[in-house]
Amino acid sequence: MDYVTLTEAAELEGLKYDAIQKKIRRKSEGFITKIKKSETGGRDIVLVAVSSLSKQARTAWKEREKLKEFVETCPEETEEAQPEKPWYVDMDLDWYITNYKERYYQGVELGNTLREFLQYEEKDRTLYAESFAQEKLGKSARTLYRLVKSYMEAAAWADKLQKETGFNYDFFKVLSLCRKPKETGSFPSIAPEVKKVIMNIWFNEDFAKNKGTREMLYDKLQVIADVNHWKIPSYQTVVRYIQFLMENKRLKNAHFLAERGVREYRNKKVVKAKRDTKGLQVMEVLMGDEHTFDCWVSYRQPNGKVIAIRPKLVAWIDVRSRMIMGDIICKDGNGDVLKESLLKLIYMDANGVPKYILIDNGKDYTKKELTGVNRKQRVRTDFDDEVKGFYQSIGIVGYERAKPYEAWDKGQIERSFRTVCNQFTKWFASYTGTLTGSRTDDKVEKDIDRMLQRGELLTMDEFYAKWHEWLTKIYAHKKHRGLVNAKETYVTPYECFTKEERYQKAVPPREYATMLMLKSEHAHVYPTGINRFGNFYMSEELCQYIGEDVDIKYDPNDISTVYVFFQGKQVCEAYSQELLQIAPTVHQEAVAEHKRRQKAQEKRDREILEAAKVGLQEINEQFTSFQAIAGGIDLMIGKKTPKNTKVVSLPEDNTYRQGFRTRKEEEPEENTYLASQGEKALQKLRVIGE
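Above: the chain's sequence. Below: its structure in token form.
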């Protein structure tokens, strides 16, 4: 009677060791067992009779034993030994069946034939093997022995991996009888040095950027081969090798990087991550950007000429709710338009200040007066609210810049602009399609000049009215796919904006915001005033700050006045004064105004000086006979100059002697004449008025 160990019995039954052990304990009367002493002195070995096992296990045991016996009788192979790990061990069975279905089922039939041969138990097995091989396979007995050996090796690998992983690998027996798939990508006709040159040319950045073709590559390869005396394959083989590199070796992205550059590669090929916007509060993060509409409107320029333009939209979107706010439509966006957009957002649309903003990297969004940071130096200033940055001045905690040419950093607003184009802009007769370089196929030919002449284009005001109607009545109340994908409770922008948890921060006073709308700069006060815009600005109060550096604010639309600040406090309002030109004649009013200011400044400074000396004079006047050595107060040591007397010497000029004093005595008569003439003029004006 044949016996096997518990481990072998478990393998034959397809069970785990603990399972077969418990099964024998439960049904001890159904199993024949015996104990064998261990040769190493360890625990006794429990053996189970093969006849006690199931029919499936007995059949598997018989097949295994016959394979062992048959291999022992096989003639020795003169060929090289097979590698330790056969090809089918790492093969995906589903892939093989999909690509080599006919081969696989031929292996199944061949396996059935081998099992029939292995069931032969009579004598003269060698003669039977020769006749069986000729009758069933049409091959020699040697081929039959080789197939049986492969079958047995596959069974051994299947048992080995089943012990390690617990899975069934009987399909190894079928695959061992199948032809190994042809190894692709070897290209034996192409020498290694030729392969290297092909890759160097194909992936060269200059060659790829110029849209180099396979014909160009092969021509250059022939030149290099002639110089180095290489043998190169045919053109078709080189093309197949390039195709193999691009598709099978997955070098397509590398070629895209060489052909299109880093910017396009990052935009099209680099993996992106999706933001979890549901964890944000409403008004916690806003994205801002500028969008050019793909349609045309009529625009009246300051000089009165009407032209056709593509209007621009400056707007912000709440990342949580996708609500578009602070929308301003203009001809050209700049820093002032961006300020107006933010003020419209916080005072009219949202009635609150956002916590953080993500802004575009354009110069209009990152200019110093908005961020408080020099765009090139990236050094934050320490001055007051006037120049520390508009964003922080109105209460925004912080801002982040989107990286240049990486639109996915602000994906929500970019996607919203595409919605604007698809659902709003395309409804206009003046729509001309997307005019970007990467989407030239979207262009629509329209005669915009003729439409302008016929009056078919909407004005800016009419266009904004249509936009505002679509934004507030359609977009805000339409189900948003981004909110649906985020599994939001409220799936329309308006509902999500008004009903979800919100970041609360009160808006600053409107007067303060109005002041922030003025532009801020540093300036130096020269004796001629503050030099800005080719003009000089001066006021009487500013005279005290000549030679100092001050801060100024001004309205770009009205540069006649600048507001001067020193150490955060407003000093005065300075007005533009007309420059004194060097010419034969000078405008009398300009000279008179300049002289008046000089005299007023000197008078004011003298009054300040006299007021500062009053205390000292009063002390000195207490002494009737003032002498410094007797207790009088004097600040400087030195001789005193005698006081000026009222006696003067008359000039020798005859004009002065004869007429100067006379004209002065007649001055009251001249004033009477002027008064009478003025009264006559007023009477005439009254008559005209009646």
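The mean pLDDT is 77.
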